[in-house]
Design goal:
Elements (H helix, E strand, L loop, with lengths): L3 E4 L6 H16 L5 E5 L5 H9 L6 E2 L18 E2 L4 H10 L5 E5 L5 E6 H13 L2 E6 H8 L2 E2 L7 E8 L15 E5 L3 H9 L4 E5 L13 E5 L3 H7 L18 E2 L4 H10 L4 E5 L5 E6 L10 E5 L15 E7 L13 E4 L5 H11 L6 H14 L10 H14 L3 H10 L8 H6 L2 E6 L2 E10 L2 H4 L3 H15 L3 E8 L4 E7 L2 H8 L7 E5 L4 H13 L1
Parallel strand pairs: 1-2, 1-16, 2-3, 4-5, 9-10, 10-11, 11-12, 13-14, 16-17, 17-18, 20-21
Antiparallel strand pairs: 5-6, 7-9, 8-12, 14-15, 19-20, 21-22, 22-23
Length: 534
């Protein structure tokens, strides 16, 4: 069953993670079992503690959504052991005319080579000049000739030059050495001569073994095929692994990206390429036409609709739905999609409403998680983005989950910004990039109970911000230390200081300012800059 990934934004916060879990669970509960919650980055300390409290596993980590080999409708031909006969390989190709190559593997499934009709034809032509069998397993010969042993002589392999018996009345065949495989019909005199010459193997084609022939030194095999067919088929008894040359094989893995695969395929001459899994075992084959219409990964976006905040390779995916509570941004889709964008404080408020609409109550664990996400995103209902609906939904979820919202809020924000955490991890735990009116800028938000204590690391923050601004070419970079207790944010800003001062009617001093009542990046900071830039 094809997976559909439900993913939030980069540097995911609690609302983004829980919304993905909640939406995937909702869709799976309504009979669509292929939805998988995913995340695009590491969990923040806050989110990690919340998931631990409710004994919930985090979503799977997804690095990007570029189309991979695993997304193609590649061929799955028979994958044969190097011990099978060439005849068995040819039969497999005859059974399915669409197969251009068959992978040959060792006993562990690891690739040894690729068998094609051309390889088999080249070997068949070579047997005209050198009609010799070299230690071919007896079982293989009996298989391709559909033969039976007429005596036991202790040998498990057949060695020798394959020689056809001449018709009656012609000169007797020349047995150059005992290492000869004689192909004959009902020709008693020739058989007797071969035994006297010490020939090691005689293949009887539609004939009986003559009376009085010694059986102690010569192996006798009976076959229903005539001499001509037996002569050609016996060469197909060699193990297929012997025809896999030393040439380096071009192979791809399930995790390889199509863009990289396409470049290799265009520069090479093969018709078919083996596909390997993570343990280098063969799982199928790929041809050029598989690259023409690759199957795209399917995704649902939650808590964002901005390309810069989404998964790399999003343009190669099929977006099925967007569930969000932010401004409409720049993500484009190839087909009409389901979009639900509502002016509430948390995406989980929307997801919880979807449970209610479908007459489905979330589990106790999931209800507690969604209540925590709403508290986190609305900053204990103090954010200007918070609505009465957020409160009502959170209270209903808390009742189902058996949690106290006040206690849960204290638990969340006491875990948000530990002092011993590396400055890089603190800054990028909830960082978003924006593109507005030709300006590219970034805003990090840290929600805490004591912003003054976080400012003791001001110099570390500013050094990291300057490095990030130069590296990414930002016109402005901002850190919001949102303090739940003072119901405002202490701001650090580098680049575009005059713009910031004008937008918020403040004066940055040593890159720092206090914005009372400002709790929301989405509703109070980004819109002011957007309005100023037009």
């Amino acid at each position: 069953m094809e997976k559909i990934y439900v993913t939030g934004h980069k540097n995911p916060d609690t609302d983004s993670i829980v919304a993905a879990l909640g939406y995937a669970s909702l869709m799976n509960a309504t009979g669509k079992r292929e939805f998988v919650a995913a995340r695009l980055g590491h969990l923040s300390d806050e989110t990690h503690k919340i998931l631990e409290r409710f004994d919930c596993e985090p979503p799977v980590y997804v690095k990007d959504m570029r189309t991979q080999v695993r997304d193609l409708d590649f061929d799955v031909p028979p994958i044969l052991s190097e011990a099978v006969t060439v005849n068995r390989v040819w039969s497999a190709m005859e059974d399915d005319k669409h197969i251009s190559a068959i992978p040959i593997t060792d006993d562990d499934g690891h690739l040894r080579g690729m068998m094609t009709a051309g390889v088999i034809a080249a070997y068949d032509m070579a047997t005209i000049e050198d009609p010799t069998l070299r230690e071919v397993p007896l079982f293989n010969v009996l298989s391709v000739l559909e033969g039976q042993m007429l005596n036991e002589c202790g040998a498990n392999t057949i060695i020798g030059e394959v020689v056809p018996a001449l018709p009656h009345g012609a000169d007797m065949p020349l047995f150059r050495s005992p290492d000869t495989v004689l192909i004959c019909g009902d020709q008693p005199e020739i058989i007797k001569s071969a035994v006297e010459a010490g020939v090691k193997c005689v293949v009887l084609c539609r004939a009986e073994l003559p009376e009085g022939i010694a059986r102690d030194r010569t192996m006798f095999i009976s076959t229903p095929y005539d001499s001509l067919r037996a002569m050609r088929r016996i060469f197909q008894a060699i193990p297929a692994g012997r025809l896999t040359g030393d040439e380096k094989i071009v192979a791809f893995h399930l995790t390889d990206y199509i863009d990289d695969v396409r470049e290799v395929v265009l520069e090479s001459r093969y018709r078919s390429y083996p596909i390997l899994d993570e343990e280098d075992r063969v799982v199928g084959t790929l041809s050029r036409f598989h690259l023409l219409r690759p199957r795209r990964k399917k995704v649902v976006l939650v808590d964002h609709n901005e390309l810069a905040q989404s998964v790399p390779g999003l343009d190669e995916t099929e977006i099925l739905a967007i569930i969000d509570h932010h401004r409409l941004a720049d993500i484009q889709t190839q087909n009409p999609v389901y979009v639900r964008n509502e002016p509430v404080g948390s995406t989980c408020t929307i997801v919880a409403g979807m449970y209610q609409e479908r007459g489905l109550m979330p589990s106790k664990k999931l209800a507690g998680l969604m209540a925590a996400a709403i508290i986190s995103d609305t900053v204990m209902f103090k954010s200007p983005t918070c609505t009465d609906r957020d409160r009502r939904i959170a209270e209903r979820l808390a009742d189902i989950g058996g949690v106290d919202l006040t206690e849960l809020g204290q638990f969340i924000f006491s875990a948000s910004a530990p002092e011993d955490k590396p400055i890089h991890d603190l800054f990028f735990a909830d960082f978003k990039e924006f593109h507005i009116a030709g300006h590219t800028f970034g805003i990090s938000q840290i929600t805490c109970l004591d912003s003054a204590r976080q400012l003791s690391r001001k110099r570390e923050f500013l050094d990291l911000m300057e490095e990030t601004r130069k590296k990414n070419g930002y016109s402005m970079i901002i850190l919001m230390l949102t303090d739940v207790l003072i119901e405002g944010s202490r701001i650090l800003c580098l680049g575009g200081e005059d713009t910031f001062n004008q937008a918020f009617n403040v004066e940055l001093r040593d890159s720092e300012a206090l914005l009372p009542g400002v709790m929301s990046r989405k509703k109070q900071v980004v819109p002011m800059l957007s309005a100023l830039w037009g």
